[in-house]
Design a protein that fits this description.
7 strands; 8% strand
Length: 408
């Protein structure tokens, strides 16, 4: 059997679970993420220039400040981190004003928009300066009821935005239909120059299509129905409640859409952190390692900011347990429980070896992977198994034939 599988690197990679988090930088970040860690690791040979390219710069600066730099973070890195955090905070403060302007306009037209994801976080945790310095975001996301979407589009045009056409020659009506059916949202870009160029995504639902199965049942409707209004500079802004913000964060990280993008030949989010490799599946696993660390950092930031608030964990745990399609979600829940400990009280903690096996099973069996390399590997694996079956059958016939000859 081994000889058959060794004929294909792709098959061998699928059969052998990738051992995650093997670089010194990844091991270091996981150690400092552990809530119970008493001492931060100083024994790992970390490439600080490599970490400059990561999304953990501000997080490491914060820990260095809080723990008297017990892991010997270089001064040059700390100065670099200050610049990154200053820029992030400036961008978030500008986006707060954009959200304030949008919320005012939507309220005047009685359009029931709920700001979600990063937009909701920088409003909810406005007084947490660390959150504003560390929570990076690319655009402003909001959920808008389907029946009010056309009215919202017209208002966005009045506010100086235009519907992004994705480079496709379509009429406005065709573009609206294409945007909803292919992306699930309208993407608006500002038509005028801005200090911080900020796109706005208006979603009709939190999740659409097969992605809905990776969220709790009726999550979009519940998120809107149970949303709250917070006062920001005397402007009422509607955002999800704290529990729904956390559920959204975790379920969005485990969304099949983002994982299928990891097979893209184009640059993924964290390709600058992955070692060059000719094997596509090895590259996917390297991307996945960094994606999961990014998820843990973002989750840790949220939990730290929400620590002083009354988060109802029973509601969160019940929601996760109600998700229909949990093959990906369980990996992220188990990883969060393993690394974040009591900060994330999910009952099932899994070792990294167990998580690696679950990841390998998903790579091998899940229908969300459409990349040619995986199709080819799965087909070769199927061929190998069929060949083994045929040989076993043939061998059995030969044995039976020999037995008959001996008897006669």
């Amino acid at each position: 059997m081994t000889a058959l599988y060794s004929t294909s690197d792709a098959v061998r990679n699928l059969l052998t679970p990738h051992v995650p988090f093997q670089t010194a930088e990844q091991k270091f970040l996981l150690e400092v993420l552990r809530s119970e860690a008493k001492e931060l690791p100083s024994h790992l040979s970390v490439d600080w220039n490599r970490l400059k390219d990561s999304f953990a710069v501000g997080f490491l600066y914060r820990l260095a400040r809080e723990r008297n730099n017990s892991f010997n973070c270089p001064e040059e890195f700390l100065n670099f981190a200050k610049q990154v955090m200053r820029r992030t905070m400036m961008r978030n403060q500008y986006r707060q004003q954009v959200i304030k302007r949008l919320a005012t306009a939507f309220a005047q037209k009685k359009i029931d928009v709920v700001f979600v994801k990063g937009a909701a976080e920088i409003i909810r945790f406005d007084r947490d300066s660390w959150h504003l310095r560390l929570r990076d975001m690319d655009d402003i996301d909001a959920v808008c009821p389907t029946h009010q979407l056309d009215e919202a589009e017209h208002l966005m045009q009045q506010l100086g935005y235009e519907l992004y056409d994705y480079g496709k020659p379509m009429s406005n009506e065709q573009l609206r239909h294409w945007s909803i059916t292919h992306t699930g949202h309208y993407l608006f870009n500002p038509t005028m120059p801005e200090p911080v160029r900020t796109a706005v995504e208006l979603h009709t639902h939190v999740a659409t299509g097969r992605t809905k199965q990776t969220y709790p049942a009726d999550f979009s409707e519940e998120l809107i129905r149970r949303s709250i209004v917070v006062d920001f500079d005397d402007v009422p802004i509607r955002i999800p409640n704290l529990e729904h913000m956390l559920i959204y964060l975790v379920c969005h990280a485990a969304c099949p859409k983002d994982h299928s993008v990891m097979f893209s030949k184009e640059n993924f989010y964290f390709d600058e952190l992955t070692d060059e490799t000719k094997d596509q599946l090895a590259l996917v696993n390297a991307r996945w390692d960094w994606y999961q660390i990014w998820f843990l950092l973002r989750l840790r930031l949220f939990l730290d900011s929400a620590a002083t608030e009354n988060l109802h964990w029973e509601t969160v745990i019940h929601a996760f347990a109600s998700v229909q399609s949990r093959s990906l979600l369980d990996i992220y829940l188990g990883l969060a429980a393993l690394i974040l400990g009591q900060s994330f009280p999910w009952e099932v903690q899994q070792s990294t070896d167990e998580l690696a096996k679950r990841r390998a099973a998903i790579l091998l069996n899940s229908s969300i992977w459409d990349h040619d390399a995986v199709k080819s590997a799965r087909y070769k694996l199927y061929q190998a198994r069929e060949l083994i079956k045929r040989r076993a059958v043939t061998s059995g016939k030969i044995i039976q034939s020999n037995a008959k000859s001996t008897t006669s």
